[in-house]
Write a structure and sequence with these properties.
It is found in: Membrane. By secondary structure, the chain is of the alpha+beta class. It contains 3 helices and 10 strands. It has helices at about 10, 25-60, 155-160; strands spanning about 70-80, 90-100, 105-110, 110-120, 120-130, 135, 140-150, 165-180, 185-200, 205-215.
Length: about 220
């Protein structure tokens, strides 16, 4: 006959082991919350940045659209026409430049590509802008000087000194300009062609009888 000890609580009801929660499982909801929070912050920042950039570019191309100036010939005078000296004739053509930009200044830069002055179909001078001129925004007009020198032939001097005949002349010049504002700056070369007629002698203040100027870029 065998003797059995009565079953204890621990043997009658064995303890069940509870599996430990993995760190990955417990951390997943927190990670999702962090990602969602980051998205909530990042997306509005991107949207606001896009709106600001679009507004700046819209402002730049509407209020600050760089328009080219318009030119007219306001005067011309010749020097070194008298006598038989070695110095070639010098021509000072004054262009009246009108700035159509109310919010942008224009600088007319010295030099540029070579300009020419012709009397009818005969070239009599070469040169360019001298000196540099700056035109502030809101300024209606400024004088821009084109200084040329060249042909000193006696027949040309005689025709230019004649105070009775009307002289048909053509000015071709490239005017380098810098159009500036706090928003944008733009540099361009303007091709200016002016066909004009002059009364009186060029040794003094010659009168512009008629003219037509065109500006291209």
């Amino acid at each position: 006959m065998s003797f059995r000890f009565p079953a204890t609580k621990s043997t009658a009801y064995p303890r069940r082991s509870t599996p430990a929660l993995s760190r990955t499982t417990s951390a997943t909801p927190l990670l999702k919350k962090q990602v969602a929070g980051a998205r909530c912050i990042f997306i509005p920042i991107v949207v606001v940045s896009v709106i600001i950039t679009a507004a700046v570019y819209g402002l730049r191309y509407t209020l600050y659209d760089a328009k080219s100036p318009k030119f007219t010939v306001s005067g011309i005078q010749a020097k070194n026409l008298e006598g038989t000296g070695r110095r070639p004739p010098r021509y000072d053509v004054t262009l009246l430049a009108n700035n159509p930009n109310t919010r942008m200044s224009i600088s007319y830069l010295q030099g540029g590509k070579e300009g020419t002055l012709a009397l009818k179909n005969q070239q009599i001078g070469k040169g360019g802008i001298q000196p540099m001129v700056k035109q502030e925004s809101g300024t209606s007009s400024v004088d821009v000087h084109v200084v040329l020198s060249g042909n000193g032939a006696a027949d040309i001097k005689k025709r230019l000194k004649d105070g009775t005949s009307v002289k048909s002349m053509v000015l071709n010049v490239v005017v380098p300009v810098q159009i500036s504002s706090w928003v944008r700056n733009e540099r361009k070369d303007l091709n200016v062609t002016c066909e004009f007629k002059v009364r009186n002698s060029l040794t003094g203040k010659a009168k512009i009888a008629s003219q037509e100027c065109n500006t291209g870029s």
